[in-house]
Each structure stands twice: as C-alpha cells, then as structure tokens.
Design brief:
Length: about 500
C-alpha cells in the first residue's frame, strides 16, 4: 500500500470523493510538460506533509533547472508556433468554457486536495474552488472581446493600436489557496499567452489536476505547463530564464522583492500580489451585530493565512468594550481541528515554521504590553494549530500592528475620531485592503477616498468577484488581477503604421 493510501485510511471522518482516492493512488506526483506528467530529470522528489498531523503523506517531483528549461522550451515553442494564440477566438472561448465545465465536475477532487495538502477547511476550500471556476467563466468570454483602437494620426497614414499577448507567462502561486490557480492562469490564456504554473512546494497537488483538465478541454499541450519544486530553485530559475517574458507572483513581500531584483537582468514584466496588514475600521454608528461576525471572520478565515486578513481592528472608543466582548463570545467556541473533520471551523497553519512564526508574534504582543483577551496559545500538541487570538490595548506602533503575521491574531486598536482612524489605518507600509463599518453614507465615502488601499469594503469584507480588479498599493504590490485589468496585464500594445499612397 502506498504511503498516501495508508495515511488516508486514518482519515475516517472525511469520505473522500472517488476521484480523490483514484488521484492519490499514484505515489509520486510530477510536473506537467508538453502535455505529459513527468518526473524530475534528476529523479528527485520532495515530501508532502499533512498540516493537521505533521506527517508525511506523499512525495512529489522536486524540479531543478533542467525541468524548468524543458518547461520553458515547451511553452516557448507552443507560443511561437501559434497553436493557441492563433486559434480562432470563438474556438478559444469554447475550450475555456469546456475547462470551466470540467473544473465544475472535478470540484470535489480539487476541494479534497486543498484539505489534504493545504490544511484548508471544507467550507473555505469549496469557496476557493468556486472562485477559480467563476474566474474561468468570466475570462472564457474575453477572446472575442479583445479589441484595438485607432489613435488620432496624420492623414497620410492609418495607425492601428492592437493588443498582443506577451508570450510565456510564469504564474508563481502561494500555498494559501491552491485551487484558485485557474484564476491566475486563465486570464493569461484568454489573452493568448502560454503559461508555466509554479505551485507552492507545500501545495502542489491541484496544479497537476488543473493542467490535465486544460488538456482535456482542448487547450493544446505545451500551452499550460507545471513545474514543481522549491521556490529558491525552481521559482528562481523561472525568474532568471530568458525564455520567460512575464512573472505573475502572489506571495510574501520578501520573496516579491527577491523576484523583482532577479528579474532585472532580463527586464521581465512583473505583477506582484504581496501581503497586507489591513485595517477594519468600526465606527460607533455601525450595525455592530453584522460587523462583529464579519470582522472576526476576516481574521479567522483560513486561520488568518489570507493576504487580505483584516488583522488590525480599529474600534471607536464608545463601542470598544461591547464589540470586543461580542467577538470574544462568538469566537471562543470555534471548533479547531483537521479539515478532514466535517465540523471543523478553523484548520491548522500550513507548517511548523508558520506556527513558530505566529507564536513568536504572540510573544512579542505580550512583551510589548498588549492584552490577550482570547486564545494566545498553540492548540493541541499534534499538527500546526493555533487558537484564535485577540489582543486589546494595541498601539499601532507595536510589532503585532506593523508586521504581517499570517495567523489567527487580531490586534484591536481604539480610536476617538474619524481623522484619527484614517491616520492609523494609513500608517502602515502595506496597502492591500481596508474595511469600514458605518451607517453614515458620507463617512463611508470619505473614508474610501482617504484610505490608501487597493480595495475598500464598506459594511462587508473580503468580497471578491471575477470582474472586479484586485491587488495592492505600497508594499502590498502592484499590478491588478481579475477583471479587464488582468487582460491589460497580460497583453502588450503594438502600434501598426500603414502609409497611404
Ligand atoms: P512563504 O514565505 O509564505 O512560503 P513565498 O512568498 O516564499 O511564501 O512563496 C510563494 C511562492 O513563491 C511559492 O510558490 C514559492 O515556491 C515561490 N518562491 C519562493 N522563493 C522564490 C524565489 N526566490 N524565486 C521565485 N519564486 C520563489
């Protein structure tokens, strides 16, 4: 019996989809290059760990420069010969719609895989899978809607301004929403590019499934490739490779900065979706009942391992105690456990390293004088669980208010006036998102204008939709994904001059 099957036999609480059992019956999960699932040229593999137990459950291909080179040559050739980019736009749309249908039929497998390697709880994995499908549905309609423009020009010429694909696009994904991969890949495809997907080393499984479904949908071999492996090896080789034209990166700020530096010699086009330290501002006229659950949920979701986690909660002083008490009351019974258990509400952190990081920040919060009013400890002794943790009495200068923790840790910061709230909210190096809770429409609009963030949610939080651009400002990155912005990001403008005789 394979290690994977032996491991899964212990997971009685979770009735795996038949497709999941079938998929997991292979011992080694490989790269997808030129339409084939292949092992690494070196034969090397890397271990995959269940975040709920810390146990190894499978092995996956560990790529190296040779595998990267093969994938780039495959994607380059596919781009140059036009097997995808020159396909009739209507036909491209048909195949992308087929991909959406296939993803829909495969949702149980994708959702299971996010639980297995990402430690994601079922409700969240289903949301992520649907988000990916929605993005494919939305972008499937783009190939027939790509238009050019005729700029003003002298009368002796006709000038066309056309949109062309960039070429080979490398999508580097994080581990906190692996099944969202289609949302990163399909906009590039809709614009006519070829893609190399580099999933995070912790969560490699769904990428293989997505690449296979692309083939089944009729997207030709070589148009979507997957290379597995650690970031410093495979990611770095892709960033340095002269055959890659653009990098679409989602991950931490430190890695983003490394990629930007490494991409300089080949002048690659970059888009960076990085971290955040997003504020949620709750004014005293807000609907507190609605706010409390959403505000806390925006920190506990996927154990806080979400870029838009609203981890700085700014509360107007008059409602501070009531709101904190409500959030503590609502959050203290949260069921923490393996995503394999149906009633789990909060799953594990992704790794021991991440658990250590969260514990270190909680220690710093205590040492710098903030008060723990909920949680504050690791949960259990197996796996990488941490209790939902609320700090009150936080000053925005404390480390827990300045640095991205990427764990279930909320910092509650009191304020008195609107001006003070906006000043605190903007006093951060990040600018991914912000939330505002108020019944005053003018105040909501004033705040949205004053907040320096890529997204502002008023009386809600963490809503995403395939047609709405998403991305940060300041140290949260640049370049927007989703909506028409993605098509702009994955195309170049070309000006064509024709002299009239
Ligand atoms: P974390 O630190 O939380 O693991 P990262 O931002 O390092 O997150 O990882 C996000 C993605 O970036 C992963 O797919 C990872 O393999 C990749 N990556 C990590 N380091 C590099 C690098 N030097 N160059 C390119 N990609 C990298």
């Amino acid at each position: 019996m394979s290690a994977t099957r032996a491991f899964l036999k212990t997971k009685h609480e979770w009735p795996l989809a038949p497709a999941t059992s079938a998929f997991l019956s292979s011992d080694v999960f490989g790269h997808v290059i030129e339409g084939e699932v292949v092992a690494s040229a070196s034969g090397e593999t890397m271990a995959l760990f269940d975040p709920a137990t810390g146990l190894e459950f499978a092995r996956c291909a560990a790529g190296g420069p040779e595998d990267v080179d093969r994938a780039v040559r495959s994607a380059r050739q596919a781009f140059e010969d036009g097997r995808w980019r020159n396909l009739d736009p209507m036909e491209k749309e048909r195949r992308l719609r087929r991909l959406s249908a296939l993803l829909g039929q495969t949702r149980d497998l994708l959702s299971d895989l996010d639980v297995i390697d990402g430690g994601v709880v079922q409700a969240y994995s289903q949301f992520i899978v649907q988000f990916g499908i929605d993005a494919v549905d939305y972008f499937a309609g783009w190939p027939t809607k790509l238009t050019g423009h005729m700029p003003a020009s002298p009368v002796d010429v006709v000038v066309q301004q056309v949109r062309t694909p960039i070429g080979v696009v490398c999508v580097i994904s994080p581990w906190n929403g692996p099944s969202a991969a289609p949302a990163g890949v399909v906009p590039a495809l809709a614009a006519g590019n070829c893609v190399i997907l580099k999933p995070a080393e912790q969560t490699p499984l769904t990428a293989i499934v997505v690449a296979k479904l692309c083939l089944e949908a009729g997207i030709p071999p070589g148009v979507v490739n997957v290379v597995q492996g650690v970031g410093e090896v495979v990611g770095a080789a892709l960033v340095a490779h002269p055959g890659v034209d653009a990098i679409s990166f989602t991950g931490s700020g430190d890695t983003g900065r490394r990629i930007q530096a490494a991409a300089a010699p080949t002048l690659k086009r970059l888009s960076m979706e990085l971290g955040g330290k997003s504020p949620q501002i709750i004014f005293d006229d807000a609907d507190l009942e609605a706010a409390a659950a959403t505000v806390a949920g925006a920190v506990w979701g996927h154990s806080g391992q979400v870029c838009t986690a609203g981890s700085r909660v700014l509360v107007q002083r008059g409602i501070h105690d009531e709101l904190v008490a409500t959030m503590v009351e609502q959050s203290k019974g949260i069921k923490i456990g393996s995503g394999f258990k149906r009633d789990t509400q909060m799953g594990p952190l992704i790794s021991q390293e991440q658990l250590d990081r969260v514990s270190r920040y909680v220690g710093l919060g205590r040492a710098e004088g903030a008060n723990v009013v909920l949680g504050g400890e690791r949960h259990g002794t197996n796996g990488y669980f941490h209790q939902p943790t609320i700090f009150t009495g936080v000053d925005n200068r404390m480390t827990i208010a300045r640095e991205e923790i990427f764990g279930p840790v909320m910092s509650v910061i009191p304020f008195d006036t609107e001006e003070e709230a906006i000043a605190i909210a903007n006093d951060t190096e990040y600018g991914l998102a912000a939330g505002v809770w108020t019944r005053d429409l003018s105040r909501g609009h004033r705040a949205s204008q004053a907040l320096r963030a890529g997204t502002v949610w008023i009386n809600t939080y963490q809503r995403v939709y395939a047609s709405v651009p998403y991305g940060g400002v300041k140290q949260s990155g640049y370049g927007k994904s989703l909506g028409a912005a993605s098509i702009d990001a994955f195309t170049e403008l070309k000006s064509v001059w024709l002299k009239i005789r």
